[in-house]
């Protein structure tokens, strides 16, 4: 007899994990949330799962919309991905362009690889169509391995996807048929107990599953690329006496504006804003990105540096910063200052002097943006992304076409123009 979905150990997390590509808003300051339809789908799925099982509300499903601004964002995602029973990738034209969706797939796939043979483990990945795919034959290898018949959710579902069914009142019956079929499929797979819980991974260090072995994306991304480099110490490299509350196990976990008992990395706010404005954001530490930032001619993509003032206390970091920011084509620097932090306020003059030394202000270079609050960071980052993109395109190297130069064309009269 298959185990009941409530019979598993208490370490088990949500029944399903909904992985979806965030939809950028037309205007970040006005208008409804463009992701509200995905949230509606999640709620409807969760309600059916709860009504047809004995699960508690918190065990039904997980989507990142429920992560509050103060939560430890990477840990929440990693925990859900390490304990969910079923992974639901919500296919759409932008899904396989999303680095975050690719990381979520990687985290769940690592659990599958570590699981002893328990039948077809790939059954624990149940793809769903949010919108019809333009080139379904060009899916990345990891998605091609999933054998799934979308016809089981109804004839109109494959044509419209969940979004199309939800938006049309005339298709309400088709939507209800599809959502019930998906929920019952989730429950059936969850009861098979295919993938036991695993240890949470370091989410920030994951790479996207949507890059094949050759290291290239399976299809050209339609969204502009942007790199964000966090220049901050981790807990093992803090300056002497520096308080730990703003820091984590990696530089990417740094947040200079922490709340008591809560911590969401500044990088996660950046990723959220990048998604809203249509950028594919690659986040990493100085160690991760230094080769990309200091190659011949400067950065190889539009780049933003988010610099902790306390990083300037580290001699090796100062030297690399001086090299990166002294280039004619340097990244766009941002320096967040939390002067409510007594240590930072007391050391402000010293830290500003060190930063001026390694991040010089010169005509023609991107201006250093000094910000004093999380709100200022959220308001200013979209503008900074735009500035970084323009600066990169303005100074990017031009490459002449390969081959032997031909003769220069000339305008000459033709026989017809001579009247012959």
What does this structure look like?
The chain has 420 residues and is of the alpha/beta class. The protein folds into two domains: 190 residues; 171 residues, Rossmann fold (3-Layer(aba) Sandwich), CATH 3.40.50. The strands form two sheets. The protein has a five-stranded parallel beta sheet, with helices on both faces. The protein has a four-stranded parallel beta sheet with strand order 2-1-3-4, sandwiched between helices. β7, α9 and β8 form a beta-alpha-beta unit. The protein is elongated.
Number of helical segments?
12
Tally of individual domains: 2
Give the overall shape.
elongated
Structural class: alpha/beta
Task: Report mean pLDDT, rounded to a whole number.
Answer: 81
Number of strands: 9
Strand order in the largest sheet: 6-5-7-8-9
In the predicted model, the low-confidence regions spanning at least 5 consecutive residues are 1-11, 67-72, 213-222, 411-420
Quick structural summary:
With 420 residues, the protein is α/β, with parallel strands linked by helices.
Question: What brief labels describe this structure?
Answer:
alpha/beta; Toll_tir_struct_dom_sf; 420 residues; FxsC_N; disordered N terminus; single chain; 2 domains; 9 strands; Rossmann fold; four-stranded parallel sheet; five-stranded parallel sheet
Write the layout of secondary structure elements.
Blueprint: E1 16-19, H1 36-51, E2 61-62, H2 73-83, E3 86-91, H3 99-114, E4 128-129, H4 141-144, H5 155-167, H6 172-191, E5 225-231, H7 266-276, E6 280-285, H8 286-293, E7 303-307, H9 315-325, E8 332-336, H10 342-346, H11 348-358, E9 369-371, H12 374-395
Parallel strand pairs: 1-2, 1-3, 3-4, 5-6, 5-7, 7-8, 8-9
